[in-house]
Amino acid sequence: MSILKNKQGERKAVSMLDQNIVDNFLPTFIVDDYDDDVLKKLASIYSEKTLIDVRNLGVDEILELKNIISSLPELSHFNILYPIDVILSAPEIEDINFARIDKTKLNAFFIQWAKANISSLPLNLVFDFEYIESEDQGDSATHLLELLNDLSSDYHAFIVSGAIKKTIPVKVTENYRLERIEKKLLQTLSSKVESDVHLHYGDYTVVHPIPSDPAPITPVVQIKYTTDDNIDFFRNGQRRGNYEFFKVCSDIVNSNPDFDPLYCWADTQIQEVHDAQQNRGNAATWAAYGINRHISVNLK
C-alpha cells in the first residue's frame, strides 16, 4: 500500500509502473477535490483496485463522492478508505470495506471498544502511524497488538507509516541517507502477532506524511532514491539560476551499486538524463522518479 497525494508527480509515478509487478499493489490517493473530471483523471492512470482516502472530507462530501463512484462505470475499481470516526458517527454509510485508524486511536479505550465490537469492523483495516522516527512506537504498538491478536484470518491489517523528514538536517548541496524504519515497524509487529490476521506493508513513499505549508518554496534539486534498506537523498542545491539536475542523475548512476537502468521507469529516465548531461523536468518530474523507484522496490 502506498499513500499518495493526488498530484502530478504521484500520478505519473503510478502510471509508469511495470504492469508485471502490480498484482499486490494498492495505491491509495488522498483526495480533497472529487468532481467527475478529477476522479476520471485518477481512474485513467491505473485500472486495478485503488483506494480513495477521504480523511479530509466531511460526511456529506463522502456521501456525494460515494454516489459519484457508484454512478460512473469507469470508477468501478475505486474503493473508499473511510476514517473510523466517520464509520462510528454515520451509520447511514453502508458497504464499507476499508477503514483507516490513525495513531491517535491506538489507545486503551478505543482498542477495548474495537475488541468488543470486532464484528462491526470492516475486514480491511489500515492502521496509520503517520510520521515515525523509530520502529519503537511504545504504547501505540502495544495496544495495536492487543487488537491484532484478536483478529481472525478473515481480516487484513495494513501497517502504514512514513519516516521521511520534513526538513533534512544537512545542506541542500549534501547527500543524505535515511534508514527505512517503516519496514522495521512492520517486522517488529509481525514478530509479536500470534493470530492468523494477514499483515501488509504500507508507507507514504518518499513524501513526508504531514501536509506541507501551501506557501510557495524553492524546491531542492534532488531525487530520493530507494533501496531495500535505505532512502538516499541525492541533492544538488535549490532550483534557481543555472541549477544542474543532470548531476544528481550522474551521481546515482556512478555511485549507487543498486542502480540498474532496466529496473524500472525511473531508473531508465535517470540513465537518459545522465547520458544527455542535460536537465529534464521540474520538481514534479523528480518526485515522480523517486516515487516510481520506491514503489517498484517495494513490489519487487
From TrEMBL:
Q: Which domain of life is it from?
A: Bacteria
Stored InterPro entries:
Protein_beta (IPR025683)
UniProt protein name: Beta protein
Origin organism of this chain?
Listeria booriae
Q: What is the lineage of its organism?
A: Bacteria, Bacillati, Bacillota, Bacilli, Bacillales
